[in-house]
Design brief:
Shape: globular
Strand content: 15-25%
Protein name: CobW C-terminal domain-containing protein
Bound molecules: guanosine-5'-triphosphate
Family: Belongs to the SIMIBI class G3E GTPase family. ZNG1 subfamily.
GO cellular component, one term: cytoplasm
Organism: Salix udensis
Radius of gyration: 19 Å
InterPro entries: CobW-likC_sf, CobW-like_C, CobW/HypB/UreG_nucleotide-bd, P-loop_NTPase, Zinc-reg_GTPase_activator
Length: about 280
Amino acid sequence: MVNNGCLCCTVRGDLVKMLLELVKKKRDKFDHIVIETTGLAKPGPVIETICSDELVSRYVKLDGVVTMVDSKHVLQHLDEVKPRFVVNEAVEQVAYADRIILNKIDLVSEDELKGLTMRIKHINGMAPIKLAKYGSVDMDFVLGVGGYDLERIDSEVHIDNSCSSMHQHGTAQEHHQRHHHDHVHDSAVSSVSIVFEGMLDLDEVDDWLERLIEEKGDDLYRMKGVLSVTGSDQRYIFQGVHSLLDGCPGKTWGPDEKRINKLVFIGRNLDETALRKGFKGCLA
Ligand SMILES: Nc1nc2c(ncn2[C@@H]2O[C@H](COP(=O)(O)OP(=O)(O)OP(=O)(O)O)[C@@H](O)[C@H]2O)c(=O)[nH]1
């Protein structure tokens, strides 16, 4: 437990100290470190501490962010209007998640659950969602997530297009529900996914992502992608959090495999049209 029990940006020093103490003194006694933040914690600074603190990142690797959602009460938190420049922690906790557990599903109706799932996917179209009662989920769902592991992203990049504003699928009823929903309490935090067959110029992609990070880094919470690039038989994989970007070649494309690019961006005030245009500008 960190000193005051609250894990937010102001106690990052405590977190660093605690993690270093654990890895130095008790390294052989554990496989994973599970950090449970308070309901009011902002995930960004915690992620940043683990990924970019020079000392910490030498010893520990971030496996993933798991967000437990209280299905009965979460909407009131997601809808809470905050003063300007103050983040809504509930929205942020959903946005940064690599895995989402929708708990207490016994306390909501099926329709409520459907609406809630759509709301969550609108914010985070990347994280697999598991429905649960009393927090009961398989250990595999919460440990060994590999949310920041490029090899895992290669095989598992999960893009849920069902709530992207430009998707072509879904029933008329879903469309209606979504539009009505967005209208009532649209959130500035959302996901944009791009799924597109074709070949990309990797230099152009590098330039595009670099520019994007420079201009919108603060607003870009998470991004992941599996790309098909010219001159290579291998996929190109990237993942990022704010201005930290990581990429490398991944698995080889099969001889008859469709070379489909899949990208997902989660962030605040994302300009979907600009993102799609930027992507298309990288096509070879
Ligand atoms: N009906 C129902 N009750 C649940 C479920 N999961 C947890 N509870 C109950 O909810 C109560 C605690 O809820 P929470 O406040 O969400 O628990 P918590 O996450 O430990 O609390 P904080 O960490 O302080 O946010 C306990 O009485 C649990 O038994 C569930 O799936 N269904």
